[in-house]
Amino acid sequence: MKDSDAPRGPQARHGPLHRGRDAGGFPATRTPAGVVRSAASTRDLAVLDARISACYACPRLVAWREEVARVKRASFREEDYWGRPVPGLGPADARIAVVGLAPAAHGGNRTGRVFTGDRSGDWIFAALWRAGLANQPTSTHIGDGLELTGVRVAAAVRCAPPDNAPTPQERDTCNPWLARELALLPDLRAIVVLGGFGWTALWPVLAAAGYPLPRPRPAFGHGVEVGLEGPRGPLTLLGSYHVSQQNTFTGRLTEPMLDAVLNRATEVAGIAARE
């Protein structure tokens, strides 16, 4: 099954979101306890995306994402910024999840699509295309024709943070969204984690989902692989350096390195390679 995000639902329009209700008609979420309740009660990915897009639970992140959307970068001054939390992207029958850190201020926070509109997105979507998980190697804006097959892409924190650095409290507040998203992927068999922040964020999510966790926790590293047995069968975690410019410009992360991790994910998930 494929997933495309031609404009619809909470991503069908840009501009400031009404603070009372989201585009799907759900009440805005304003507190960490509200995130827990809203995430736990969601039974559908499209509804989850709408509820994530209407989250105001972290005041610092709300202020920053909206300031960036208002001030804008000069090269994007004619565009309407999304300026809200960015939901995940990909079909409900995904066997692989890719989890990053957070949206970029002038990337996902501008376009409304995770990992879209910046150099990090250029890297990850090109790699997904090479792995046979995307129908095209680029992701520039909602409605550009991108379709994902067998993979769901998300972030540990859904709002663009100042200096690309969410606080531990913001990470923990956002965790229920990620936990529910992964729970709504019944065929999930592999998670590719981009960077140490996402690696740390994922452990409490998996514990809440009923996966017995190894002790001590495996340290993050590129190519690290951890096998878990849980309520829905085996799950493999695969670590990769983040696709940040700091890593890709310096050569710490190369295309072959990223391809190797994604190809391993398709192997353990039982997804046939592109012919």
Please supply descriptive tags for the structure shown above.
275 residues, alpha/beta, Uracil-DNA Glycosylase, subunit E, five-stranded mixed β-sheet, DNA repair
Rounded to the nearest angstrom, the distance between the terminal CA atoms is 18 Å
Task: Give me the number of helical elements.
Answer: 9
Q: What portion of the residues fall into strands of 2 or more residues?
A: 5-15%
H/E order of the elements?
EHHHEHHEEHEHEEHH
* CATH topology group: Uracil-DNA Glycosylase, subunit E
Largest sheet: 5 strands, mixed
Strand segment tally: 7
User: What general form does the structure show?
Assistant: globular
CATH class: Alpha Beta
According to CATH, the homologous superfamily is Uracil-DNA glycosylase-like domain
User: If you compute it from the alpha carbons, what radius of gyration comes out, rounded to the nearest whole angstrom?
Assistant: 17 Å
CATH architecture: 3-Layer(aba) Sandwich
- Biggest β-sheet: strands ordered side by side in the sheet: 4-2-5-7-6
Unreliable stretches (pLDDT < 50, length at least 5) are 1-23
Structural class: alpha/beta
In percent, how helical is the residue content? 25-40%
Overall mean pLDDT: 91
Number of domains: 1
